[in-house]
Structure formats: structure tokens, C-alpha cells
């Protein structure tokens, strides 16, 4: 990691950031300037002035996404503020362009109030064709996303929630097939009830999973547990059908699937040995997973996936968001919804021609993946 | 004009806007991705988290300007709103990149309240190295600019005010020399007291002009004129030293210089004939000037400048703003001020090696102009 850190600092310093703007039109002489700028551009302004929707035809709005963060939950680093968010948002913008041809620009907001963020995003929306919310902490992210979806006329997606959900579901679809489990009966223990954990859980339920128990640091979430916030009360209503109670080590007994979006080292070999035989382990904490793949394998794991590129089965949002935004812009969708996310997950899963326990997901460099996902966004 | 309009609409439709984002780093494999994005980028976020100023070294902030508009005063078209502003801001961004290597991104705000605009610009500021306010109507633009200058730590410039002021002063410097007039004694009639008119007047006074009379649609502005707004009361205090009263046609008598930032056709041959001999006429209304150059010449004009590219002496902001923002970023200035604008105007004037009545200004395609201006921004 140290080596990556040093090299990354050097790379960022050398270039002074990772993205730049570029003119798509030539400006070599007065005539060209008269078309791209005054007086010619007045015609374009007048057309759009009569019908704002024309901005989708005549301006960058057609192909441009805002990547919006307040820096409150940057990677696994926590609340480092909007300035520290810039390099992450730039990285995301670089990926969107290189992999999906989407123009994206970082909007890093110098405040962290829910209502203020909603207002600011609505105020800057005219230039953009879609909004990618990013690295905004839970539970504020839920309210911000749902309000913006209701109040804006362009699609809005919090990638930490739904990008993750799409890729986890894609991985699960292939894992279930290999392990010969059924979504209706498989028992899933979920560790972590933040933005990602919550969104993945809801998508899995929508997809048809019936027996999910979500744990936070207190243990299993169940209806009536004292001190649950509004979001966890909602979650309790649709999960944990048998109302089991206890810490992770107690409730994991007999389950077939563990999904962690929590912290390094929270899953032990001992816990794993109490699970059903040949369990499926998605240990997604970054950069250090809940259990290391070699340890999990030794403890009997049939399939292990992590967020890391240096192990098999990397489960990374980058498999989802480039195609999701490409499709949202191309098809001018009104809004993202669960049907889109399920179709996208199925497309990612199907993209692996012959899944094996060491290859349940494509990698983002495989040609055609972005297109396969973007086609499902309608 | 019709031909320009048709061609411009076609150009904008063909490209779907004029600017795009581009990655400056290569993302062809996992290793490259690990430096530009996770896990490597975490090091950059942590560095910036400790010291926000490091964003100037490691991110796009180093070279990126926000072009902010609320669409309340688009070109000469009026208040068409933020969507109609997009193509103009994109054109400006394209010019900044092509001529000065500055990355600029349009922020078109979906509201027009002064306090809300100030707040929004402060909220989005982290990503940017400077702010270019654009096409915001007077008098709100004055308050917005001065407040943002006081409350932000990056330079802020309303180009309609100061970009215009720099270029008008540059043209005047050469015109005075050719016409053998002195700034201390030359009598200037200014027609138009909006954003540009007000800013140009103040810069000319700062430069040393002593006898300026500003007219609005009611005629000369003077101290004590009933119904003046706050901004015009201020203007009245520092202009019109002889307290002359009357409509443009009355007060223009005997003046040596006319500067119009008003409306098509407001200056007639009859008025011109009452001016001092061989007057200097800057007829800057766009796209149709206060008087057409051939008519002005017939009525005795020594020098005529307009905003148009199809006549001699085009007086266009594009001579100023690319170099002003290039310099502001390169030299990390704290704030723009009148000293910078005067030095910039002198640099533009000096860039014309041998000024003649038909060539008082360089054209923006001349090599070295941006550099000459940017050097004065310190």
C-alpha cells in the first residue's frame, strides 16, 4: 500500500489533477469563433430560452454528469471534507470518460447539511444530464437521494448505494448458481448497515431473497430493537423474518452467505466454521477485508470475493456505474429504479460466460461490459 | 446574422455542446487504476485532508475556473434563464482552453436571488482556482462580486464588468495617443450605466480620467438627480464634475470621446457633429452598435471601435479574460484589483506595435497576447 501511496502522490502532483476540459470545436479564426461564440451562439441561447429541454441537444448537458460529494464519507477514510474529496471524484470522472465516454465533473460542496445539499444540487442541475452522488455519509445520503429523485427531472444515483448493490447482486447470482442455492431459501448474514449495506439489502429483497439478517455493531437488527434510527427501523421490517437476536458470532450460525460491508477482520475462522458447509463469503471492507481470502478458504469457503484488485473475484463499483450512467444519458431515462438495477446486475452476471468459484464477475477491462450494462438502463 | 445563426445551431447540434472532459492519466490496466483511483488516491485525500491548500497541487483546482451565470443578462438577449446561458458559458470555456490553456466549467444556477447566488458559489468553490462571473444583470452583479471577493479565498472577476473595462481602457490608451488627447482633460460621454458602463467608468477614473459624464436612458447622471439607485448615486459622486444636466443629445456637445455600452442606433450623425472635432467613438452595443462605423466616419469620427469582428477595431473581452485568468491561476493571486486591470490594459495597448486609427487593438489570434496580459496579473 505504501508504494501505491507514494506513486499516487507523485502522479497527482505531476499532472496537477487528473481531468481537464477540452474544446470539441475548432477556434482557429474569426469565422469559427463567430459560430461557437458571439454572434452565432445567440441563436442557440434563444432556442433554449424558448424550450429548456433543447439544452439536451445543443449543450454539454447531453453527455455530462455531476459527481457530487460533501466529503463526509471518503472511501474508508471518513469525514475529511470537500477538498479531500476532489481527487476521488476526479478519479471517478476519469473512469467515466475512459470506460464509458461520459463527461463528468466533480462538484465538491463546502457544507454538510442535508437540506443545503439538496438545494445546491438542484441549483446547479441545469448543466447536467444526470447526478452521481458520491461519498456522502449515511443516513443523510438516503434522504438526499430520495428527495433529489423526486424534485429533479434528471436521473440521480448514489453510487455507494446502488453501484455497490448492482455488483453484489451480480456476484451473488453467479455464486448461487455455482453453489446450487435458491434465493428464496438461502440464508444471508449481512454485516454493516451503512449506505452500501442498506441499499444492497433492499435490492436483494426486491430480487427475491427472503432470509436476510442485517447486523450492525450491536448485532442483528430486528423489529423493536431499542434505539434503532428511522432507517434501521425500516430495514428491520423487511429483514430478519425469524426475529433472531444476538451478536454476529451468534446469528451467523447455519447461514450460507456472509456479506460484509463493515470493517477489517470482523469475520473469524471460528465464526465461519459455524456457517453451513461451503459458505459464500463476500468480504468487502476496503482496503482490508473482513477476512483475508486465504484464511476464508482454509476455513471452508466455497467462494470468496473482496473489493481488492489483487485477489480473485474483485467486487468493484466500476463494473456498474460507467454502464449505468452511459445508459441513463443515452436513453434519457426519467429516473433510476430497482428494475434497472436488477437488469443491470443480471447483465453483469451474464457477462461471465463460464462462471467458476474464482471468477464470478467480469473485470472492468473486458470489452463490451459497459455496453451490456447500458442497454439495461431504460 | 441569419447565416451565422443557422450554422451555429447546426454546429452545436452536431457536437452536442462544445466542451468535453478528458482524463490526463492513463487507465489501461489495474496498476494504473490503482494509482489514479483506489487504493492509491487515498493518500492524496489524506494529504489534502490535513491541509486543504494542497488541493492546488494535487487536483484540477490548480488550473480550473468556474464560469458562473444565472442567465439573467445573456449577451444582449436579456433574462433567458440558466439553461439558455449554457452555450455561452461553454463558448467561454472553449476560448479559455484554446487560447490560455485554462480549464473552465460552466455553473449555470437555477435561481436569481443575490444572497442565494453568493451562497451557492461559496458552496461549490472547493474545486475551483478562480471564479468568472458572467452574464449576471446589474445591479445584482456588483453586490455578488464584491461579497464573493471578500468572502472567498480565490480570485473572483465579473468579466462583463472588468474584462470590458480592461479592453476599453486599452483601446482608449492608444486612441488618446493617436488623437493627442490627455486623460486629465479629455471629455468623455458614456452612454449606458449597466454592469459594463459602471465598471469601465470606475477603471477610467482610477487610471486618471477626470471628466466623464455617464448617461442612462434619462440622460446625464448627476448628484442629486431624483430616483437614482444606490449604484448610480455612487457613480454620480465621482463623475460629471461640472454637474451638467440633460439628455444625451444635449450633454454630448463639445465632448471628445463617446463610449456606448447601450443600444443600437442611440448615437446619430447630428449628435456627433456637435462633439469636438475628430471625435473618438466606441460604439459597443452588440450585435448592432450605437452608430455604424461608416456613418460615424462620414460624420467626422477620427477613430471608431465596435464589438464586431467584421469591422476594424474590434473591442472584445476575449482580448482580456484569457490572459487575466491564466495569470490569476499561474501566480495564485489573492484577488483581482484595479491595479491589475490597469496593468493588463496597458499590456494590451502596448501589444499593438504601431497603432493607427484603424488598428488601436490587437486581435485575439495574435501570438503572445495572452502571455503579455497574464504577466501583469500579480
Largest sheet of chain A: 6 strands, mixed
Could you tell me which chain pair has the largest interface and how many residues each side has? A-B, 97 and 98 residues
Question: Helix content range of the residues of chain A, please?
Answer: 40-55%
Q: Could you give the order of the helices and strands of chain A?
A: HEHHHEHEHEHEHEHEEHHEHEHEHHH
Number of helices of chain A: 16
Widest beta sheet: strand line-up of chain A: 8-7-6-9-10-11
Strand-residue fraction of chain A? 5-15%
Low-confidence stretches of chain A: none
The shape of chain A is elongated
What would you report as the Rg of chain A, rounded to the nearest angstrom?
Answer: 22 Å
Question: Which helices and strands occur, and which strands form pairs?
Answer:
Two copies of one chain form a homodimer.
Chain A: H1 2-15, E1 19-23, H2 30-36, H3 41-50, H4 55-58, E2 64-69, H5 81-100, E3 103-108, H6 114-124, E4 130-133, H7 140-151, E5 156-158, H8 159-179, E6 187-191, H9 195-207, E7 211-216, E8 219-220, H10 230-238, H11 248-251, E9 257-260, H12 269-273, E10 280-283, H13 293-298, E11 303-306, H14 321-330, H15 338-350, H16 369-374
Parallel strand pairs in A: 2-3, 2-4, 4-5, 6-7, 6-9, 9-10, 10-11
Antiparallel strand pairs in A: 7-8
Structure in words:
The structure is a homodimer of 378-residue chains. Chain A has 378 residues and is an alpha/beta fold. The first copy, chain A, is built from 16 helices and 11 strands. In chain A, the strands form 2 sheets. Chain A has a 6-stranded mixed beta sheet with strand order 8-7-6-9-10-11. A 4-stranded parallel beta sheet of chain A has the order 3-2-4-5, sandwiched between helices. In chain A, helix 6 packs parallel to helix 7, helix 8 packs across helix 15 (338-350) and helix 9 (195-207) packs parallel to helix 10. The mean pLDDT of chain A is 96. At the A-B interface, helix 1, strand 1, helix 2, helix 3 and helix 4 of A face helix 1, strand 1, helix 2, helix 3 and helix 4 of B.
